[in-house]
Amino acid sequence: MSVLRFLVTREALATLTKRSLVPTLQNSRAISSLTNSNNHSYKAIFAAKAIETPTQQQWQQQQTRGHKRFGHGEEKTPRVTKYFHLMVITLFIISVLDWGKVKRLIVPKVDADAGQRPSDAAGVNGESNSESSDSDESDDDDARLNPHDGKKVKEKVGFRERKIIEYENRIRQFSTPDKVFRYFATIQVPVADDRHEVYMTPTDFLTSMTPGMKQPDGLGLDQYRRYDPKSVGEQLNLQLEKNSIFYKLGSYGLITFSDYIFLLTVLSISRRHFEIAFRMFDLNGDGDVDCEEFEMVATLVRQQTSMGTRHRDHANTGNTFKGVNSALITYFFGPNMDQKLTIEKFLDFQEQLQREILSLEFERKEPNADGNITEADFAELLLAYAGYPPKKKQKKLKRVKRRFRDHGRGISKQDYLDFFHFLNNINDVDTALTFYHIAGASIDQQTLQHVAKTVAMVNLTDHVVDVVFTIFDENNDNQLSNKEFISVMKNRVQRGLEKPKDTGFLKMVRSVFKCAKETKPVLLDI
C-alpha cells in the first residue's frame, strides 16, 4: 500500500509540474521567436507588453473591488448640503438678533426741532417736555405713594419678575388643568396613610385664571404651604363673607381639584347654555333635575369646554376628577339627596360665584378710604384678558392715567359690579350695537348707556362710560369702536377659558415663535 501511495503521489506531482511548465515553455518559445526576427523585434516586445497590461489592470480593479482613491482624498460636499447649512445659520442669526436695536442704530431718530428758531423750538420743547413729563409721571405712579390716601401703589416690575410672569401666562394658556392646579395651589394638608391633599384658596383660584398675576415667591409647581388638618381653619385668614359661596364647598372654603374643574366649568358656560342643558335632561318637563340627571348635565357641559377636553386624570399626582363635591351635592339636593335642583337655583349659584370672583378682583386693587379704585385700575381689569401686546396695553393705560390724573374720582364697587352685569349680556349688546352701525348711527356715550338700560336693565354712570370711551376711543372723536370693544369684552367675560388649549401645527409654530421672541436672553442682544 505504501508503495502504491508513493507512486500515485509521484504521478500527481509530475502532472502538476508539466501543467505549470507548459505556459512557461510557450512563453519562452514566443519570446525566442520574436527575438530571432530581424525586422520587428522591438515592436513585438512592446506588443507583448501591451497585451499583458490590460490583464494586470483588470486584476488590480478586481482586488480594489470598485474603490477609487480610497483614503487618499476628501469627498466634495453636495451643493444642496451647503445651501441647507447656509439656511440654518441664517435662521439662527435672525432669531438671536435684536432687530429693533439694529433699526435704531441704522436709522437714527430725526430731530424735528433742527431747523426752527430758538423761540419756536423752546415752545415745541415745552409742549414735548410736558407730554414726556406726563408719561414719566404716569410711569412713576407705580413707584410712589398715592397723595390722596397714602397707600403705596405697586412698584415697577423688574426683569426677573417680568420673565416669571411671562412663563406663568404660558402655563395658564397652554398647560393642562392638572398642571395649572399644581402650580397655583398653595395649601397642602396631610391625610391618612402618609398621603397629602392639595387645596387652592379663593385667591389662588383667581390667580390661576388672571394673566399677569404673579405667584408668590417660594411657591410654584408642587411647592406648597403645609398645615395641620386640625387647625387649618384657624390658621387661614381667607377674608371671605360668612355666606360666601366657597364655604358651600366645604374644607374651610378651600378648593380641591374636583372643585377647581367644576368651578371653571360654571364660569366658562353662559346662562343660556346651562338652561338648554337642563331642559335636555329634564325628562318630565317640570324644569327640575335630580342628582343623577345633574351629574349628566355637569359631564355634558364640561366636555363642551376647552378645559374639559384638555383634562386627563393623573393618578400619580392624585389629581383625578371625582365628580361634584359632596358638600355641593348636599347644598343642591339636601342632606338625603331627595330634593330637586331648579334651573333658577343653579343660575343663582353661578351669579353668586361670578360676583365673588369680581369682588376678589376689586379688593386686590386695594381701594382707597372711600372704597374706590382708580380709573387706571379699572381699565387694567377690563383689559386683563384682551390679549393685547404689552406696548398697546400700556398705551391705553397711560391714556387713562393722563385723562383722570387731576379730576379722577375713582370707580366704586357697585359701579364695577353693574358694569360687569352689563357685560354678562354682551351677545345681546353686540346685536344692538350692530343694528346701530347698520343704520349709520354713531355709537356715542349716550347710545351705550341706552343699550345698557334696554338690554341689561343696568344704569351705567357717566363716569364709567367716560372711562370706557377713553380706553377704546383711539382718535378722540368720542365715538366707540364697537368691533374692538365687543371682542375685548367677550374675552373678559369668558376669562380666556374658552380659548383652545390644543395647538395644531401652525398654532404650535406660532407658539414656539412667540415663546422664543419673549424669552430671548439678554446676552444675545447686540
From TrEMBL:
<dbReference type="GO" id="GO:1990246">
    <property type="term" value="C:uniplex complex"/>
</dbReference>
<dbReference type="InterPro" id="IPR039800">
    <property type="entry name" value="MICU1/2/3"/>
</dbReference>
<dbReference type="InterPro" id="IPR018247">
    <property type="entry name" value="EF_Hand_1_Ca_BS"/>
</dbReference>
<feature type="compositionally biased region" description="Basic and acidic residues">
    <location>
        <begin position="143"/>
        <end position="152"/>
    </location>
</feature>
<keyword id="KW-0496">Mitochondrion</keyword>
<keyword id="KW-0406">Ion transport</keyword>
<dbReference type="Pfam" id="PF13202">
    <property type="entry name" value="EF-hand_5"/>
</dbReference>
<keyword id="KW-0677">Repeat</keyword>
<dbReference type="GO" id="GO:0005509">
    <property type="term" value="F:calcium ion binding"/>
</dbReference>
<feature type="domain" description="EF-hand">
    <location>
        <begin position="269"/>
        <end position="304"/>
    </location>
</feature>
<dbReference type="GO" id="GO:0051560">
    <property type="term" value="P:mitochondrial calcium ion homeostasis"/>
</dbReference>
<dbReference type="InterPro" id="IPR011992">
    <property type="entry name" value="EF-hand-dom_pair"/>
</dbReference>
<keyword id="KW-0809">Transit peptide</keyword>
<keyword id="KW-0999">Mitochondrion inner membrane</keyword>
<protein>
    <recommendedName>
        <fullName>EF-hand domain-containing protein</fullName>
    </recommendedName>
</protein>
<keyword id="KW-0813">Transport</keyword>
<feature type="region of interest" description="Disordered">
    <location>
        <begin position="113"/>
        <end position="152"/>
    </location>
</feature>
<keyword id="KW-0109">Calcium transport</keyword>
<feature type="compositionally biased region" description="Acidic residues">
    <location>
        <begin position="133"/>
        <end position="142"/>
    </location>
</feature>
<keyword id="KW-0479">Metal-binding</keyword>
<dbReference type="InterPro" id="IPR002048">
    <property type="entry name" value="EF_hand_dom"/>
</dbReference>
<keyword id="KW-0472">Membrane</keyword>
<keyword id="KW-0106">Calcium</keyword>
<feature type="domain" description="EF-hand">
    <location>
        <begin position="460"/>
        <end position="495"/>
    </location>
</feature>
<dbReference type="Pfam" id="PF13833">
    <property type="entry name" value="EF-hand_8"/>
</dbReference>
<comment type="similarity">
    <text>Belongs to the MICU1 family. MICU1 subfamily.</text>
</comment>
<dbReference type="GO" id="GO:0036444">
    <property type="term" value="P:calcium import into the mitochondrion"/>
</dbReference>
<dbReference type="GO" id="GO:0005758">
    <property type="term" value="C:mitochondrial intermembrane space"/>
</dbReference>
